[in-house]
């Protein structure tokens, strides 16, 4: 499906459910797709003190 971005005015293709079916995408169970993924990744990253 194609939609127009309200921010840029450009046409953007939005892929639906099953778009990645059969692909080799692996997500850890502790990552919630309902929350911002970048924030979760940064929160789970070891600090410099822990990595030594």
What does this 3D model show about the protein?
With 52 residues, this protein is an alpha+beta fold. Helix content is 15%, strand content 12%. It has one helix and two strands; from the N terminus they run ββα. The protein has one helix at 37-44; strands at residues 2-4, 11-13. Strands 1-2 form a two-stranded antiparallel ribbon. A hairpin with a 6-residue loop joins β1 (2-4) and β2. The longest helix has 8 residues, at 37-44. It is flat and about 45 Å long. The model has no long low-confidence stretch (mean pLDDT 78).
Helices and strands in order:
Elements: E1 2-4, E2 11-13, H1 37-44
Antiparallel strand pairs: 1-2
Helix content: 10-25%
Report the total helices.
Answer: 1
Structural class: alpha+beta
Identify the quaternary structure here. Answer: single chain
The Cα radius of gyration reads 17 Å
What would the principal axes of the Cα set say about the shape?
A: flat
Strand content: 5-15%
How many extended strands? 2
pLDDT below 50 for ≥5 consecutive residues: which ranges? none
Q: What is the typical, i.e. mean, pLDDT?
A: 78
Biggest sheet architecture: 2 strands, antiparallel
User: What letter string, H or E per element, gives the SSE order?
Assistant: EEH
- Order of neighbouring strands in the sheet with most strands: 1-2
The separation of the N and C termini measures 48 Å
């Amino acid at each position: 499906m194609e939609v127009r971005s309200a921010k840029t005015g450009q046409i953007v293709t939005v892929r639906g459910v099953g778009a990645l079916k059969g692909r080799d995408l692996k997500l850890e169970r502790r990552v919630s797709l309902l929350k911002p993924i970048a924030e979760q990744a940064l929160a789970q990253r070891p600090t410099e003190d822990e990595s030594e």
